[in-house]
Amino acid sequence: MSQSSTTRRWLAAPPPAPLRTGPEIKRAYPRLRLQVFLGIFIGYAGFYLIRNNIPLVGALLIDDGRLDKVGVGIIANAALIAYGFSKFLSATVSDRSNARYFLPIGLLLSAIANLVIAFVPAVSASLALFAVVMFINGWFQGMGWPPSGRVLVHWFSTNERGIKTSIWNVAHNVGGFAVGALAALGLSLTGNDWKVAFWLPALVAIVVAVVAFVLIRDTPESQGLPPIETFRNDPAKVEVDEEAESKLSMWSVVRKHVLGNRTMVLLALANVFVYALRYGVLTWTPIYLSTVRGASLTGGIAGFSLFELAGIGGTLLCGWASDKIFRGNRSITGIVFMAAVGIAVAVYWLTPQSAPLWVSLVAVTFIGGLIYGPVMLIGLQALDLAPRRVAGTAAGFTGLFGYVLGATLASSGIGLVVENFGWDVAFIMMIGFVGITIVFFALINKDEKAAIEDHRQRSEASI
After folding, report:
1. Which residues contact 261 (CB under 8 A, 6 or more apart)?
2. Fewest CB within 10 angstroms: 10, 165, 228, 428, which?
3. pTM of the complete model
4. CA angle, 47 then 73 then 48, to 5°
5. How far apart are CA 131 and CA 125, in angstroms?
6. pLDDT, tens only, 50-99
């Protein structure tokens, strides 16, 4: 047997185990649902410890003469572009792989890349080499979302997935806040040595990878449990002929349900502008606050951390509202939250420089509290509106557009705009992103309403 086939075998999704008895199912299902949820929550938070730490120390790198604003944008963009491609391509592998292995392996490899940045001097001495290593790091980062999406689809059913996904999505913010805290602590202990922002979070991420491996299980069927739709009597929004689909190749299914799906394409385009806005604010907040608002390095990092921390409450509110207030309609929920984001960005931009720094920090907090709702909703819609077999790939497809095109607009694009035209033009561009996103959500809403009505009829028929 070849080494490659051996590798595919141990990484492959485990086959169904013998079905447990009724009493065993009732006892095991709730316990394992909590266990795997904690696994993907903690594991995905770990990815954010080491995803793209350049913005945290960008001001230091600029002051040291290592980089200018465009250089910071190029390096940050290298990681985000790699992540976008990897999120899609890794998803096509992850949808057929064991999530228990896939997620921790990606996290360990990403941690190693961050240690290389910190401890190999040649990397930080060359803009090109720095960007290459961050590109590699971004590729390993793409191994985090797809197995998490796989677990969410297989262990949590349609009518609870909004709330559950919003809770899981908070892992973004927990990890983002934690890396800010770790970086600030490390900088204070090392006399502002920028390398600590890479090696300290990487060591923590290695521990997190081990914890994730212990907790995660792939699918209910692999544990001798029935599918979640059967267990909760809650059919999927999109159902297909599983027997017929199983005869198609993976790429045939991807072409049919993802690349050729109007709704998925609209979601992907919307994601471009949601991510451009998210990273347009997040990537440049430490530099904007320190260079325009006169904040200290620690104050700039505080803005970064508050942006992430506020996303916790906003994401949970968005998930709850989409399930309970808007009755599963994610598109209308997204429109409401994006309109509020636009107002918060305008306040952040138009606050006079003479105003106290806390005013800008409050505005950043509100932006973070609002933008992560739409970020979560697009991934959730992709999971909801695709067959289980390609749910991760569908979400990865939206991520490909968000990170490749959105990251370019946010990192290199905004860096160039600020460098050549100033911050005012950059903020006008970001408010434009809000309006475009709202238009795409409105177009998606037509398709989503039809899926919601079909789900309602099948739910009533199964009672």
Report:
1. 385, 386, 394
2. 10
3. 0.76
4. 10
5. 11
6. 987 887 777 777 777 777 767 777 887 788 788 888 988 888 888 889 99
**211-215, 278-282, 285-289: range with lowest mean pLDDT:** 285-289
Q: Is 12 exposed, middle or buried (0-12, 13-18, 19+ CB in 10 A)?
A: middle
Closest to 431 in 3D by CA, of 308, 300, 323, 339? 339
Residue 277 pLDDT > 80, yes or no? Answer: yes
What is the pLDDT, as a whole number, of residue 5?
45
Q: What is the pLDDT of residues 377-421, one digit of tens each?
A: 888 888 777 777 777 778 788 888 887 788 777 767 887 888 888
Phi/psi at 115 (5° precision): -65, -35
Of 79-83, 243-247, 309-313, 375-379, the poorest mean pLDDT is in 243-247
Dihedral sign, CA of 25, 225, 98, 387? negative
Strand-pairing partners, residue 97, are: 12
Q: Which residues does residue 383 pair with via DSSP β-bridges, in sequence order? A: none
CA distance from start to end of the chain: 50
Q: Which two tokens stand for residue 146?
A: 């797809």
Buried residues in 110-147 as b, exposed as e (16+ CB within 10 A): bbbbbbbbbeeeebbeebeebbebbbbbbbbbbbbbbb
> Tokens for 48?
């954010």
Indicate whether 263 pLDDT > 60.
yes
Q: How crowded is residue 82: how many other Cβ atoms within 10 Å of its Cβ? A: 24
Dist. CA 174–CA 153, nearest whole Å? 22
Alpha helical stretches, state H, 156-240: 158-190, 196-215, 228-231
Q: Cβ–Cβ contacts within 10 Å for residue 91, how many?
A: 29
Q: What angle do CA 194, 178, 397 make, to 5 degrees?
A: 95
Residue 196, number of CB atoms within 10 A of its CB: 22
pLDDT at 242 exceeding the cut of 70: no
